[in-house]
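User:
Note these tokens:
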Amino acid sequence: MKKTLTLAILLLLLIASASFAKEIKLDSQLSQDLFKSVSKELGVALAFNPMSPAEPLGITGFDAAAEVIVTDINDNRDYWKFTFKNEDTIPMIPTARIHLQKGLPFNLDIGAMYSSVPSTDIRLWGVELKYAILEGGITMPAISIRGAFSKLEGVDELDINTYSGDLLISKGFLFLTPYAGVTMLRVNASENSDLVSLDDVHETIYRGLIGLQVSPLPLLNITVEASIGEVKQYGLKLGLRF
């Protein structure tokens, strides 16, 4: 069983990573307004999503998973043509990530994620800290607050990092745990290109999210999540929870 799940996780990461082997190269026609727009959408694509209910893992809890986040971008806009070198625009940006979470005392969870795109130098990493205000129970929902940071590396011409804060609520029923939340995302971007000279971008984005964690077996958990707002996202997570 564990071997099958491991192979499924590796296949999920490989397919999603290979589908976004694009070179990011800023064009001289990229204006300040276009840079602001592309930074906002790309920043959302690189943000560290919760992909987990509000309830804490517990002091002995550990979650190791692979996840794919798909971001629905405005591919018909000029700023994408001036961002990917010699590439046709794409309707969505998929990113495959490894996501690890560990439970701590006092209803705290810490986590980290990492992504690397094959055939490119593109790398993405992030860290998170979640605190359950309410642990939840038979009749009570769990409520938590979460902070996260993510950073893009390996792209010479573009620096992007994000900060996010989430308020989450969830309630488990048998092997199903639906959850919902609101997110404040801060996107910070700067360019290092010889072809353009643009000001740094600092954008704050507010979004809502809904998700469902399914735990059909003691160790297995499958999570789907959708973020609602100016830039839409959809996520799928497959992992082992101890």
